[in-house]
Design a protein that fits this description.
By secondary structure, the protein is an alpha+beta fold. It contains 12 helices and 21 strands. It has 2 domains: about 220 residues, Rossmann fold; about 160 residues, no CATH class. Helices cover about 25% and strands about 25% of the residues. The structure holds adenosine-5'-triphosphate (ATP) and magnesium ion. The site of magnesium ion has 2 residues, from α1.
């Protein structure tokens, strides 16, 4: 097992496009790191540079204290689990797991004890004499992991290992991978575009966008303290609502409510009078189900509900609003990057399933204004984020390198017409 240290890693392909751009991540020994981001953001390229399947254009890749840029994949002793598992169909499960050991010329008795040990860990003992074709997707996944385990690799690398599985099995395998990683304590880098996996598996999550790392933080920090509009819009399902917010003196005016502008935000403003407010759907509530003491801490406001969706354990209400064109422009740009489907000016709020709010009704909603994030529409930066509040700053990993903050391309996001998780597909898209 080993720490992996990526220092200013850049990959430029033949056409001059930097698929990975100056990314620095320090993966501690035994840590579980997730690489997440929209399609084409450079996740697989970065993973392939760790393994050695892709040349590194510049930067240093250090594994277990040793610079490996020039080392062949086999010399790095890493274990990669691919989406299709890459099992040999004509070999039994036993032989599939034994394969890397046979290549290495291990003795039969060594092979036997290691394969049986791995099979025990993975609960595959009953299937050792079967062929991959006779296994379920989840069992095949475990065989692929068994092969990684017997090699006693320095680290596990996964590239979307669960994306071929149905939602239920994906959930099971996710828990299984987490349990295994914890038991084995193997350094792991895991690529996914499924944010449920990103949020549940990783000790820390690196969010990539167009080759640049936008934020590296614990799942909780990403959710509560996103650096910018991109991360805010990417993490969370249904996604964060983005609304126009006019600054009038020391108040902020949103489509449905007016609230005092927090002092630390006011001090950061440099003349902007229009910001983008970000509010997560789950931070709203039907005012009638909020208990009194709590209600006083927040604001209530009226809005007309266009459509509601009742899901048993959850209820969503959709509310239409108007936004000025300059906000819409930013929102449209980010929506495209987030693989959003269309631009809509509707807000989604998550309500208690007991709520009696129904389609077409005027509803009284509640919100704690402390939950409102404010973003600069030009730079995308989160103006509400308090410096030094993040729990990631204390771990000494200095992992963010040069790319915490975006280049200020000024993209915005819509309330997100996309669902990024398997189980997030509950929203109306129009
Ligand atoms: N061999 C190549 N030559 C040129 N460009 C490439 C090559 N491989 C990948 N790219 C480009 O590099 C960028 C990053 O690709 P990569 O495969 O790392 O994305 P990804 O984040 O893994 O996406 P996905 O989620 O779709 O798998 C993309 O724009 C892609 O088109
Ligand atoms: Mg990929």
């Amino acid at each position: 097992m080993a720490a992996i240290s990526m220092r200013n890693i850049t990959k430029v392909y033949g056409d001059g496009f930097p698929a990975v751009n100056d990314v620095s991540i320090e993966v501690a020994d035994g840590e579980f790191i997730i690489l997440v981001g929209p399609s084409g953001c450079g996740k697989s390229t970065l993973l392939r540079m760790i393994v050695g399947l892709e040349d590194i254009t510049s930067g240093d890749m250090i594994i277990g204290g040793e610079r490996v840029n020039q080392k062949a994949p086999r010399e790095r002793n890493l274990s990669m689990v691919f989406q299709n598992y890459a099992l040999y169909p004509h070999l039994t499960v036993y032989e599939n797991i034994a394969f890397p050991l046979r290549l290495r010329g291990a003795t039969d008795s060594d092979i036997k004890s290691r394969v049986e040990g791995a099979a025990k860990t993975l609960d595959l003992e009953e299937h050792l004499q079967r062929k991959p074709g006779q296994l379920s997707g989840g069992q095949r996944q475990r065989v692929a992991m068994g092969r990684a385990i017997v090699r006693e690799a320095n680290a596990f690398l996964f590239d979307e290992p669960l994306s071929n599985l149905d939602a239920k099995l994906r959930g099971q395998m996710r828990t299984e991978i987490l349990r295994l990683q914890r038991n084995l304590g193997v350094t792991t880098v895991y690529v996914t575009h499924d944010q449920t996996e990103a949020m549940t598996l990783g000790d820390r999550v690196a969010v990539l966008r167009k080759g640049v790392m936008e934020q590296l933080a614990s799942p909780r920090d990403l959710y509560e303290q996103p650096n910018n509009l991109f991360v805010a819009g990417f993490i969370g399902s249904p996604p964060m609502n983005f609304l126009p917010c006019s600054i009038k003196g020391d108040t902020m005016e949103l489509p449905f409510l007016t609230a005092p502008l927090p002092a630390h935000v006011a001090s950061r403003l440099t003349g902007q009078d229009l910001l983008i407010a970000g509010i997560r759907p789950e931070h709203f509530e039907d005012a009638s189900v909020v208990d009194e003491r709590k209600r006083d801490r927040g604001l209530t406001f009226e809005a007309t509900v266009d459509v509601t969706e009742w899901l048993g354990n959850q209820q969503y209400a959709y509310i239409l609003y108007d936004a000025p064109p300059e906000v819409l422009e930013h929102l449209a740009e980010l929506d495209k990057e987030l693989d959003g489907e269309s631009l809509r000016t509707q807000m989604v709020v998550s309500l208690d399933p007991m709520s009696r709010i129904r389609d077409g009704q005027k509803a009284t909603l509640w919100l704690d204004p402390a939950r409102i994030h404010l973003f600069d529409p030009k730079t995308g930066l989160n103006l509400t984020k308090r410096d030094g509040e993040s729990s990631e700053s204390g771990d000494g990993s200095d992992a963010i390198g040069s790319s915490v903050i975006t280049d200020g391309t000024g993209s915005g996001s819509t309330g997100g017409a996309h669902s990024l998780t398997a189980d997030g597909g509950t929203r109306r898209t129009n």
